[in-house]
Amino acid sequence: MTSAQSREDALRQEIVEIGRRIYDRFFVAANDGNISARLDEALVLITPTGVSKGFMKPDDIIKVDLAGNVLSSPAGLRPSSETPMHLAVYAARPDVGAAVHAHPPAATGFSIAGIELDLPLLPEVTLTVGKVPLVPYGTPAGVELQNMVAPYLKDYDAFLLANHGTLNLGETLTKAYFGLESIELYSRIRLVARLLGNENQLSPTDVGKLMDLRAKMGLKGRNPLADASR
After folding, report:
1. What is the pTM assigned to this prediction?
2. Which residues are catalytically annotated?
3. CATH number at residue 67
């Protein structure tokens, strides 16, 4: 087996594992959500449409090129209807190796309420994710959603999709998935704080200290709070 084939097999298995996790944690239901990973400079692996993320097999994962042409697919399966959004990510961001789109309940609730996740409330999320913008609504399953996301790609790794869900990017599948976990936890905690009647934000001084720590730790990925601190 070649090293390229070994890498592809490992990525297929990892997509299946991330799919199981987002399904088991109720970040998606039924056949919702989609996951992709960059195989190399020209090829992407992506989940099929109409298949539950909790019940996928490695052979179900579809290979496409950056133009969206299907290069390998099991009989009867087609790539996610939101493949254009994923391919737009890879075209705009050579540093991104994976993307996870899901419908986590609390974060999606904020997207429906029209509220950005933009307050520095939790040090861990402030350190690693920063502001999560609210992308205007675009009809799924086509270029409309892709066009709505495109202007935000250069500045962010995590997005709320209005009335739709979340999109998380990362160098690896694990990092993209961890970003999803982080913003859903942030959303749940922020919701409780709002219900209790107060959201105590970290001070600018405290945020600056976190950004200094971020630099020392060599953390990669977009973080607008880190950019603003320079």
Report:
1. 0.94
2. 82
3. 3.40.225.10
